[in-house]
Amino acid sequence: MKVKFNNRDPVYVQVIQHFKQQIAAGLMEPGQEVPSRRELAGRLKINPNTAQRAYKEMEEEGLIYTERNLPSKITRDEKILGAVREELMLEAVENFITSVQSINAPLDEVVELIQKKYKEKEAGEGGSHD
Amino acid sequence: MIEVKEIKKRFGRKKVLEGVSFDAKKGEITCLIGINGVGKTTVLNAIMNLTPLNSGQILIDGERINKNSYEKITFIPDAVTMLPRMKVADAIQFMRDFYQSWNDERASELLEFFRLNEEDRISDLSKGNAAKVNLLLGLALDVDYLLMDEPFSGIDIFSREQIAEVFTSHLVEDRGVIITTHEINDIEHLIDKVILLDNGNVLKDFRTEVMRAEEGKSVVDVLREVYKK
Q1: Is there a domain that residue A2 lies in?
Q2: Cα–Cα distance between A66 and A30 in angstroms, integer?
Q3: Could you tell me the residue range of the domain that residue A88 belongs to?
C-alpha cells in the first residue's frame, strides 16, 4: 500500500480517497479485512491519530464496519459500493471536463477522441507497448 | 498534558522567550519550529527544569515539575551523551541502572527496529546510527512524554526515514511528543500540531489537519509564507 500524499488536502481525506479507489478498482473486496489503525499508520507513514480519524469517517460513511472486537472489514453493502464507484467516476469526469473546457474543446471532438484513446489503451494493455 | 504558560527567559540582556504559551497532549506529536533558531531548545530545557525562568509556569499533568516528573518525562538531546568508548550495550546498562522506568523489552524491540548492534562502540557509529542509539536510549524509557531536540539533524535520508517510521509505531504511540526540527518534509504527515516560534513569541499555533482542511496549506506552505515576510 503506497499513497503519494499531496500537501493541500487533509491526510485523512486522502487516506479515505485511497480506500475508495482501491474498492472501486476491485483491489479491495467486499468483506475484506482492513489493516489495524497502527498497521495503516506504519504502512502509509502517517500519524496513528490520522489513521484513526480516516477509519472513523469511513465507518460513519458505512465504507467499513466493525463487529465486536474483530478487525474492521470493507462493507458488503452493494448500494454503498456502487455509490463509491459512481462518486469516483463523476469526480474524474468533472476534472476532465474542467480541463477540456479550459481549452474550448468541442464536445463531439472530445467524445470521439475519448473513444479512440480508450480503445487504444485497452488494446495496448493486452499486447505489447511501444 | 504539558502546559507551558507565559514563560519568559532572558540571557543577560537578550530576551529569548517573551511570554511563550502552548500545550502538548498525550498521544499527540507537537512540533516546535523556530524561525530564527533561538528559543526552541530553551523551551525544552525549561520544561525539564534545566534552566531557571524569569517568569511563567510549566505544568505536567497539572503539576509543577518535581522529582517524580523525571519518571514521567524525558529529554532526548541532539547527540549521544554517553562516553565514546562505551559499547551500545554499556550505554543500555547505564540507563537500566539509572532509571526505574527503563523498559528492556522495548529496548530490544528498538535495537531490532533500528538494526543496531549492541557490540558496537559509540565512537565507531555512523552519524545515522548514533542518532538511532540516542533515540533508543530515550524511547526505551516508560515515560508519558518525550522531548526530542532535532532528532533528524545531520543524518542521511534513510536513517531519517527509519526514525520517522518510529513515530507511526506503538513505540511512540499514546505518548506525548514535543519535537524540534528543521526537516519538516520528513515528518509533515506525522505531526498533529505546530508551534511556530519567532523572536521569543509564538507566531502561530495550529493543527496540521485543520490547516490543510481550512486553508489548503501544508506546514511547509505556512513556513514559506512566514519566511517571505
Answers
A1: no
A2: 13
A3: 79-122
Provide the 8-state DSSP code for B172. T
- What are the tens digits of pLDDT across the range A35-68? 998 889 988 989 989 999 999 999 999 999 998 8
pLDDT in tens, B147-180: 999 888 888 888 888 888 888 888 887 899 999 9
Answer with the residue of higher pLDDT: B87 or B188. Answer: B87
The one-letter code for the residue type at B20 is: V
Residue A127: which pLDDT band, with cuts at 50, 70 and 90?
A: low
pTM of the model: 0.83
A17 and A66 fall within a common domain: yes
Q: Which three cell numbers stand for residue B76?
A: 532526548
Q: Do A50 and B220 touch (CB under 8 A)?
A: no
**Residue A3 falls within a domain, yes or no?**
no
Asked if residue A51 and residue A87 are part of one domain, the reply reads no
Q: Which domains, from first to last, does chain B contain?
A: 2-228 (3.40.50.300)
Report the pLDDT value the prediction gives residue A19, as an integer from 0 to 100: 94
Least Cα separation, residue A36 to chain B (angstroms): 12
Q: Residues A56, A84: one domain?
A: no
Q: In angstroms, what separates the C-alpha of B31 from chain A's closest C-alpha?
A: 13
Is there a contact between A47 and B164 if contact means CB atoms under 8 Å apart? no
A25 with A43, same domain: the answer is yes
Q: Do A16 and A53 form a contact (C-beta atoms < 8 A)?
A: no
Q: Which of B178, B191, B198, B179 is nearest to B220 (CA)?
A: B191
> Same structural domain for residues A109 and A92?
yes
Which of B160, B207, B212, B218 to substitute to test the interface with A, most A CBs within 10 Å? B212
> Contact A9/B164, CB-based, under 8 Å?
no
Distance from CA of A17 to the nearest CA of B (A): 15
Q: How many CB pairs under 8 A join A and B?
A: 58
Angle formed by the axes of helices B219-228 and B208-215, nearest 10°: 80
Summarised one tens digit per residue, pLDDT across range B98-146 is 998 999 999 999 999 999 999 999 999 999 999 999 999 999 999 999 9
